[in-house]
């Protein structure tokens, strides 16, 4: 029997969708970016979207104590535009591409609070789903496999020891081997953020039930990437497509 477009399940009408979720510093974004590059897919770093909203709220001078009560329509005038451009998803504010601003300490300290605001999650849900509509996407975050793309073809849940995650974050930010003191301090901050991400009411960080686990504490970056690429190639439905 010929398969008509209307009989094809929605998940088969698009290209592959891969999600990587996990706590801060587990290596999601760098791994997702490299997996996407190797497959010729687009990479969505969803944490950057939450960071962009935090940055915009701060720049606009919206009082922090009012953030929790914002309505989605109040986020429209913040001047943010999300564009899928070649391999990347770029975020602009008032026409200017946002890059290092998203990683500044002011944003990092407040982003978990912003990520707990229902209006923010609602506003970003549509943005993220439209970026995934055609598939061929590797998306990383906290709720990619549970809420945003529950029908993803492969869901990976990354974990890594707390100290190792702190060490990686410091190397990423300062490009040098950190001291034990630095690691301890960063580990405390990461733990607080994990706690906020895991206990918020709206879309908390949670392992998707159908995820493949990947502990990256003691494996190399290349091994992480190869593990995921192997799992993707094992998926029958994707054979011949990648
Ligand atoms: O991965 P990151 O550190 O850039 O994430 C920034 C914050 O955004 C972090 O506190 C968790 C939150 N976040 C989220 O709640 N849901 C996502 N899908 C991605 C990030």
Notes on the structure:
With 242 residues, the protein is α/β, with parallel strands linked by helices. It has a single domain (16-227), classed as 3-Layer(aba) Sandwich (Rossmann fold). Helix content is 43%, strand content 16%. The chain has eight helices and eight strands, in the order βαβαβββααβαβααβα. The chain has a five-stranded parallel beta sheet with strand order 2-6-1-7-8, sandwiched between helices. Strand 3 (80-85) and strand 4 (88-93) form a beta hairpin. Helix 2 (46-60) crosses helix 3. The structure holds 2'-deoxycytidine-5'-monophosphate (DC). Residues 24, 46-47, 50-51, 111-112, 115, 141-144, 193, 197 line the site of 2'-deoxycytidine-5'-monophosphate. 2'-deoxycytidine-5'-monophosphate is lined by residues 24, 46-47, 50-51, 111-112, 115, 141-144, 193, 197.
List keywords for this structure.
three-stranded antiparallel β-sheet, 242 residues, binds 2'-deoxycytidine-5'-monophosphate, Rossmann fold, disordered N terminus, alpha/beta
Give the helix proportion (percent range).
40-55%
For the sheet with most strands, the description reads: 5 strands, parallel
How much of the sequence lies in strands comes to: 15-25%
Strand order in the sheet with the most strands? 2-6-1-7-8
The CATH H-level homologous superfamily = P-loop containing nucleotide triphosphate hydrolases
Shape: globular
* Tally of individual helices: 8
Order of helices and strands: EHEHEEEHHEHEHHEH
Uncertain spans, ≥5 residues at pLDDT below 50? 1-8
Topology-level CATH name? Rossmann fold
Helix/strand-derived category reads: alpha/beta
DSSP E strands, number: 8
